[in-house]
DNA sequence: CTGTGCGATGTTTACGTAAACATCGCGAGT
DNA sequence: ACTCGCGATGTTTACGTAAACATCGCACAG
C-alpha cells in the first residue's frame, strides 16, 4: 500500500487525493483501526471501489478476470472489510447481546456457550452483558448500556421479574429472547422442560417404592426453582401422596449441606429430589456425615447433570438438561425475529432426560 | 437533502413524530437500527448537529441553557448515539474480544466473567469468540473471523502452542493479551502464579510429615498443567525428596476417578497433589471406594478452589486462584496497550492462597 | 448497417458522527 | 468608541461501505 500510495501522490497524479502533496502520507489516527480500504484496493486493482464491493460481497456481474485481480489486490493489501462502516450502511451489526446475571451456574454457562457457538455458525458475534447484582437497578443499567450497543438482538438469561421495568427501555427494533422465565406472553421464551424433568424424577422415586419424596428447592426468586417445586408438588398430589414441606437452598453446595443436615434428622425422609446438582453435592455430604447412607437409607436425585455428577459419592442420578439445544433455539428464535423485524410470543420447551446413576434405590425395609 | 427532508416533514407540525403524514415519514430499511439521529435532535432543539454532538459527549463550550434544550430533545426523541457511526469515525469499537476454547473449566469461566465485569466498568463491551475444537485450524478460523470483527483488542484464554500460526494473521493494530501461557516473550501474559500455588501445596503436605507427594497432573498440552507438574517436581527435589511418577488426567472428574483407582493401589501413597478440583473430586470417590480414608490414610490437595470444593467429602484443601484479579489485569493490560497503540511483553503473575479444609492430615502412623 | 438490450463497470450519494475550521457576538482593554 | 479575543455555535468534511443510478461497449435482431 505504501508504495502504491506514494507513487500515486508522486506521479502526475491521475486520480485520487492528488491534492495531498509530498507531506502527510495518509496519516491514520493513533488508535486507528483499518489498514486498507476499498478505495485502496480499487486503486491497486485499477477498478472502482464499487467493483471491489461487489467482489467482497460475492455479487454477480463481475468478470472472472476482474474478480481475480481484485482478489489479488485484496490479498496484497491485507484488506479486511470495516465492520463499522458496514454496520453504518446496512443498519445491521451482526451481533447478538447476551445479558446474564451470573456465570456461576452451570446452566447459564452451558447455555451461553451454546449460544456463542450457534451464533458463530450463523456469522453472528456474541456480546456479553454482565449484570453485577440481581437488582432492578443493575438490570436497567445493563439494558441502558445495551441501548447504545451494537446489537441486533438480545437474549436474556435471567429471571423475568427483574426484567419488567428494564425491557421497556430497549429500542423497539431490538428483538428479545428470554430464557428461564414465564414471560411467554410477552416474549419468545426458550426453556428447559422443568416440569417434565421434575415429573420424571419424582415418578422414578415413587416407582422405587418410596412413600413420598422430599424436595430441596432453589431460591424463591428463581423461576426455574419455582417451576420445579410446583411440578414436584403436583406430581406427588396426582399420585395421591402428601408433599412434605419443601426445604429451600440458594443453589449452592453449601446451602445443600445445611439443608441436608436438616433433612437427615427428619423421620421418614427416604427420598429427596434436589433442585440442582450442586445442592445435591452438599446434601450428599450432610447425609454422609449424619450417618445416612445413599442410596440405601436415602435416595437422591439432582437436576442439571453437571459433568461432575458422575463423580459424586455416590454417582448422582439426575435430570439431564440439554443446554446446547436451548442455546441453539435461542439463537434461531433471535435471528428469526430479526429477519421478520417483529417480536414473537410463546414458549418453547426443551425436553429433559433422567440419567440413572447410583444415588437411588428402593427405600429401606423393602 | 436537508431541505427535502424539511419539506417532507415540514408540515405545520413543528416537532415530534406526531405528524407522520400520508407520505413516507423517513422510511427506514427493514432491519433498520436507529431511531433518531443527531440531525433529528438538532432540528428539534433548533441547534446544529455539532452542538448535539458536543452535548452527547459532554464537551465544554455549550451554554447550560442550550445543553438543557438539547437534552430535552434527546429525551423526547429517544435519541441513542449510533455506535457504528461512532466507531467508523473514531476508529474505536470500544469492544474487547475474548477467544477461548471451552467454557467447561471453572477457570476460564471465572476469568471470562471477571473480564466482562472489568470491561463493562471501563465502558467496553466483550465479544465472545468460541473455538469449537482445539486445533490450529479452528483457532486460525476464529482469528480470521475476528479480523473483520469490531474489536480493539483481544484476550486469549488458551494454550499458546495453538496460537502460533494464528496470531500472525491478526491485524497489527489489534492488541493481544494472553492468559495461561508462557508467551511472555511475545505478548502480555497474565496468569495465576501456578508455581507459587503448587509450592505452597506441596510444602504444606511435606510439613505435615508426608515422605513425598504424588501428583495427579492435567493434560500434557495444557500449559497450566505443565507448570504445576514442574513446580511440584522442583519443590520435592528442593526438599530432597524423590518425586514419584506423575499420573495424568484430562481435568475431568472422571479421569480423576480413574487415576484415583490407580493411586489407591500404590504403596506409600499418602499424599496427592491434584492439578485441579474436579479431578480431586473423582479421586476422592475412587479413594473412598477403595477403602482408603481421606485424610486419615491419604491427604489430598486440589487446585482452583471451585465453589463446590467446600462441599466435597471431605471438604477439600485446595489452592485458591484469584480469577477476578486475572480478569481485571487482562482488561487493564489490553486497554493500556490500546491507548499506547503498541504491544507490551512480559508476564504478570497473580498470587494464590492455600485454603485449608479437611482433606489433609499427617500421614498414618505418625 | 443501425438500433436495442444487456452485462460489466463507473459515479454519486447517504448512512451518523465528530474533528477541523469558520463565524458571530459580546465584553474588556485601551 | 473601537478593536481584540474568546466563548458559543454553525458549516464542512471525512470515515468506509453499498445502494441507486449512469455509462459504455458489444452482440445480435431487424
Describe the structure.
The structure is a homodimer of 366-residue chains. Helix content of chain A is 42%, strand content 15%. By secondary structure, chain A is an alpha/beta fold. Chain A has 3 domains: 2-81, 434 Repressor (Amino-terminal Domain), CATH 1.10.260; 90-191 and 324-347, Rossmann fold (3-Layer(aba) Sandwich), CATH 3.40.50; 194-322, Rossmann fold (3-Layer(aba) Sandwich), CATH 3.40.50. In chain A, the strands form 2 sheets. Chain A has a 6-stranded parallel beta sheet, with helices on both faces. Chain A has a 6-stranded mixed beta sheet with strand order 7-6-8-9-10-12, with helices on both faces. In chain A, helix 2 (38-45) crosses helix 3, helix 6 (106-121) crosses helix 13 (323-340) and helix 11 (253-265) packs across helix 12. The first copy, chain A, starts with a helix and ends in an 11-residue tail after the last strand. Mean pLDDT of chain A is 84; it is low at 1-34. At the A-B interface, helix 5, helix 6, strand 2, helix 11 and helix 12 of A face helix 5, helix 6, strand 2, helix 11 and helix 12 of B. Chain B binds a DNA duplex (30 and 30 nucleotides) through helix 3 and helix 5.
Number of helices, counting only DSSP H or I runs of 4 residues or more of chain A: 13
State the end-to-end distance of chain A: 83 Å
Q: What is the succession of H and E elements of chain A?
A: HHHHHEHEHEHEEHEHEHEHEEHEE
What characteristic shape of chain A results from the CA principal axes?
elongated
* Structure class of chain A: alpha/beta
Strand order of the largest sheet of chain A: 2-1-3-4-5-11
- Oligomeric state of the chains present here: homodimer
User: Quick check: average pLDDT of chain A?
Assistant: 84
Amino acid at each position: 500500500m505504501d508504495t502504491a500510495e506514494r507513487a500515486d501522490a508522486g506521479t502526475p497524479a491521475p486520480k485520487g487525493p492528488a491534492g495531498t502533496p509530498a507531506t502527510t502520507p495518509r496519516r491514520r489516527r493513533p488508535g486507528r483501526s483499518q489498514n486498507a480500504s476499498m478505495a485502496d484496493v480499487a486503486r491497486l486493482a485499477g477498478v472502482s471501489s464499487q467493483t471491489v464491493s461487489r467482489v467482497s460481497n460475492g455479487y454477480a456481474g463481475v468478470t472472472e478476470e476482474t474478480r481475480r485481480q481484485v482478489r489479488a489486490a485484496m490479498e496484497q493489501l491485507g484488506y479486511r472489510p470495516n465492520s463499522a462502516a458496514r454496520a453504518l450502511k446496512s443498519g445491521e451489526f451482526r451481533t447478538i447481546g447476551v445479558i446474564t446475571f451470573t456465570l456461576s451456574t452451570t446452566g447459564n454457562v452451558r447455555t451461553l456457550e451454546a449460544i456463542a457457538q450457534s451464533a458463530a455458525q450463523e456469522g453472528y458475534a456474541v456480546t456479553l452483558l454482565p449484570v453485577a447484582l440481581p437488582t432492578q437497578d443493575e438490570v436497567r443499567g445493563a439494558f441502558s448500556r445495551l441501548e447504545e450497543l451494537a446489537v441486533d438482538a438480545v437474549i436474556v438469561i435471567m429471571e423475568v421479574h427483574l426484567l419488567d421495568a428494564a425491557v421497556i427501555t430497549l429500542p423497539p427494533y431490538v428483538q428479545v429472547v428470554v430464557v428461564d422465565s414465564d414471560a411467554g406472553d410477552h416474549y419468545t421464551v426458550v426453556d428447559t422442560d422443568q416440569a417434565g424433568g421434575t415429573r420424571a424424577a419424582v415418578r422414578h422415586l415413587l416407582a422405587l417404592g418410596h412413600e413420598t419424596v422430599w424436595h430441596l428447592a432453589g431460591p424463591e426468586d428463581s423461576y426455574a426453582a419455582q417451576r420445579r417445586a410446583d411440578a414436584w408438588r403436583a406430581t406427588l398430589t396426582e399420585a395421591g401422596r402428601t408433599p412434605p414441606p419443601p426445604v429451600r437452598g440458594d443453589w449452592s453446595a453449601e446451602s445443600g449441606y445445611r439443608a441436608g443436615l436438616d433433612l437427615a434428622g427428619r423421620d421418614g425422609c427416604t427420598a429427596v429430589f434436589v433442585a440442582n446438582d450442586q445442592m445435591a453435592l452438599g446434601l450428599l455430604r450432610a447425609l454422609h456425615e449424619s450417618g445416612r447412607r445413599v442410596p440405601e437409607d436415602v435416595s437422591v436425585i439432582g437436576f442439571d447433570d453437571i459433568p461432575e455428577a458422575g463423580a459424586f459419592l455416590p454417582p448422582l442420578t439426575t435430570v439431564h438438561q440439554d443446554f446446547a439445544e436451548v442455546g441453539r433455539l435461542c439463537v434461531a428464535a433471535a435471528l428469526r425475529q430479526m429477519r421478520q423485524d417483529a417480536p414473537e410470543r410463546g414458549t418453547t420447551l426443551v425436553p429433559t432426560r433422567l440419567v440413572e446413576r447410583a444415588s437411588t434405590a428402593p427405600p429401606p425395609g423393602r
